[in-house]
Amino acid sequence: MIEIKNIQKTFGDRTVLAGVSGTFKPGDTSLIIGGSGTGKSVLLKCMIGLVKPEVGQVLYSGRDFLTGDQDTQKAIRREMGVLFQGGALFDSKTVLENVRFPLDMLTNMSSAEKRERAQFCLQRVGLEAAADRMPSEISGGMKKRVGIARAIVMNPKYLFCDEPNSGLDPLTSIKIDELIREITDEFQITTVVITHDMNSMMEIGEKIMFLYKGKKLWEGNSATLTHSNVPELNEFIYANKLLRDPSSRH
Ligand SMILES: Nc1ncnc2c1ncn2[C@@H]1O[C@H](COP(=O)(O)OP(=O)(O)OP(=O)(O)O)[C@@H](O)[C@H]1O
């Protein structure tokens, strides 16, 4: 489980996170949603240690990530998988080498063990046949799958995905969402996904946190998302629907 408590972050005189708290549970794909510039990415960066908040706690199974000693921080980092926007693959490495990379960096496994583990993860995302291809030779959706395979290769307890659907067509987006949810459930990972994709919210929104101007204004799930009495959330959903379905403007 991940607990965040009263996370506050400012850049200069701009408050980006104004005290955000919440919990994320194993086996759940939790979504952080909100409009552009509301602090979603900064919150995720605070959770994975790329940005240091001025105030607040991030607890991984009770261990304090921000103030814990170096060994604790290192141990927690090893338990994290991150899927960055765009997949962030190394262009000069094959698909298999990309997936194997964390094992090369962080483990003492033998080459055979690394190959086997990387192949298992590629198989899990349905890409075993693409192992020897270069990233430039595969589609955007496949790149995301490779990114997912790499994010899970260390068998993470915690998985973070920043806009996993960006740049994908709706059908491919749904497949990526399903894959993230399946893997989360299968390996009982605590997964946190940033999205402003309405389909994702309806399909994988077991738990949804709505951020607005650096504050958590609402928390719920896909069933309650459209029935809130929070005007800012309703406006956000309405704007999203308009974008997705121009016919609803009439
Ligand atoms: N390193 C930084 N230095 C200064 N300001 C920053 C920094 N990182 C983020 N910000 C600001 O913090 C605010 C929140 O940014 P953030 O990237 O979290 O938004 P977001 O909700 O993820 O939006 P989007 O959906 O557009 O990605 C923005 O105004 C952004 O300009």
Automatic annotation (TrEMBL):
Alphabetized SMART domains for the sequence: AAA
InterPro entries: AAA+_ATPase, ABC_transporter-like_ATP-bd, ABC_transporter-like_CS, P-loop_NTPase
Pfam family, one: ABC_tran
Location of the ABC transporter domain: 2-238
PROSITE patterns referenced in this protein's UniProt entry, alphabetically: ABC_TRANSPORTER_1, ABC_TRANSPORTER_2
Domain of life the protein comes from: Bacteria
A GO MF term: ATP binding
Keywords of the record: ATP-binding, Nucleotide-binding, Transport
Annotated protein name in UniProt: ABC transporter ATP-binding protein
Species per Swiss-Prot/TrEMBL record: Larkinella insperata
